[in-house]
Amino acid sequence: MKRKRENVADTEPVVPEWKPERQILTASEVEDKESYKTEGSIELRIDRFADFVREEEVRYSAPTYIRGLSWEIQANCEETDESDNQDGQPPSKVLSFFLWCQRDSTNRPWECHANFSLRVIAQTEGVNDIVRENLEDTFYGKDNWGFTNFATCDLLAMDSEYFKEQFSKCEDNNRAVLQDVGYGEFIELLSVIYPISCPITAGNVETISKLAFKFNMAALLRQCEILLMKKK
């Protein structure tokens, strides 16, 4: 009787070759992932610049998403006041451009601190770009969200001898009239004191130091001085 010879290849288990799993993302998933990148560039190209200057229109760049927030550049031309011109020169047109975060924001409160650089790229050979680097600012979802609740009279009096004296003179002890202070400036001041405590930056130090001096806020003024000394 002839013994059947077993084929080793037929009896050993077959081990499939391991291959790393490849992640396949849908178009929407790729777009969502791209929206949360940590840094990026925003570009605004202005065609027919002469028409743009003459028509005094406002233009916006296409939104660029960084950390899930929409960022845009706004550009427009403005005419200078005669008081800004030297030697009695007539008013001239200047280009203004701004960085917007969440321009069409909802009423939901949010806050974002950003570091950025601004650059106007020269279109003529041999002319240098106009550059402002190492800028930083804090962007808010609403100009005054939460400040009416957070900035109480007691907090202001704690930081400022001026407010402490003003509130002590008020009959109802919760109202004081401020002279020669813009609404936006005062909101910016409130944003850097406790409990909001946003940082003092190169973008707001001039306003904060002016108001800290005006309202006798010694600790805040010292913070401004330290920042200005570091810049030098």
UniProtKB/TrEMBL annotation:
Pfam families: BTB. It comes from the Eukaryota. SUPFAM superfamilies: POZ domain (SSF54695), TRAF domain-like (SSF49599). InterPro entries: BTB/POZ_dom, MATH/TRAF_dom, SKP1/BTB/POZ_sf, TRAF-like. Residues 128-232 form the BTB domain. Residues 44-156 form the MATH domain. This is BTB/POZ domain-containing protein. It comes from Ditylenchus destructor.
